[in-house]
Batch of 3 targets.
Target 1
Amino acid sequence: MAVFAKLADDGKTVVNISVVDAAKTTKNNQTNEEVGQGYLYRTHGWPAELWRLSEIEKGIPYRKNFAGIGHTYDSTRDAFITLQPYPSWTLNETTCRWEAPIPRPDDDKRYHWDEENQTWQGHPFSVE
């Protein structure tokens, strides 16, 4: 199985996700993006260059992060980037993931980000 992201005409915005049988994307016993792009073009008529491989094996993203509808494909970083969750969060250039201004506490409690106060707040249903 291979998962492909369909990009909008801008070549950046993910507008759909397609799961493709490995047999339709394989060349020399390996998943091949170009083979998959060709198959998707023939099947859907969407330009081949607007399909990007997102996942080649269960649980392993091909381009730093899994693609999702509304996410961005950054061709310079060759990565999928999720929507910025809060204005104060910054993009980690290595992982292409958003990070809070302060790290989340490292314990077994549940937290949510409080943007107004710029802090992590314990979830009211956390088990002590």
Note: The two ends are 41 Å apart (CA to CA).
Target 2
Amino acid sequence: MSEIRVTTISDTAGTGPVTLTKQHAAKAWMHLNGTGTIAVQDSLNVSSVTDVAAGQYTQTHTSAMGNAFYASQISNNRSTSTNNSTSQHIDSTYTASLLNILFVRHDNLANEDSSRVMTSSHGDLA
């Protein structure tokens, strides 16, 4: 069996990291504290997040995706102790540069903030 051990993989010029363009790794991901004053806990290719309204956030990519037809997954951890579940939605107004996220409770159809918001996006970068 072969083994490769490296500290850094650089671009062909040796001046920077390898650019993820046509590879199958996630091109953007985020872990967000979505209650109170929202805060990105950790991320890749996310420049900012806006708290639009209760349960609604806009994630802006640092580097745009190649087009608006990338695939995104969303998960969340509810901020309340009730057993009411939520639906995670990607708003239809998403673009190559931003992703609109919405959480709606099943019991009353009200939007609700989430204590943890996790996203992952796959596709090609522009």
Note: The CA atoms of residues 31 and 42 lie 5 Å apart.
Target 3
Amino acid sequence: MREELGELISYELSDPRIGDASVAEVLISPDFRRAHVRLTLSGTAEDQTATLEGLEHAKPFLKYQLSERLQLHRMPELYFEAALPTELAAKAIQVLKRIRRGRPKS
């Protein structure tokens, strides 16, 4: 699903609000009702917000195209979110490790 969605966003959407966005990962719930699409976005904060708004607007088109290309029993609802930059994600992992070390085992 990640590759197909990436191709749709990159090559088939013509919304001028959608800037440079690539699909970092797609997390699908076990019941296939929700798919959280994490995107790597470039540009300013306003550009990133505009890209997310454009993708929200294009959601019906994306769902239809994905249902045509993929043989899924159920087409999940798409939720778009910006992925953390790699340096920020690494820092978050370090903080979580420090928090876990500080907690007593129960």
Note: The mean pLDDT is 85.
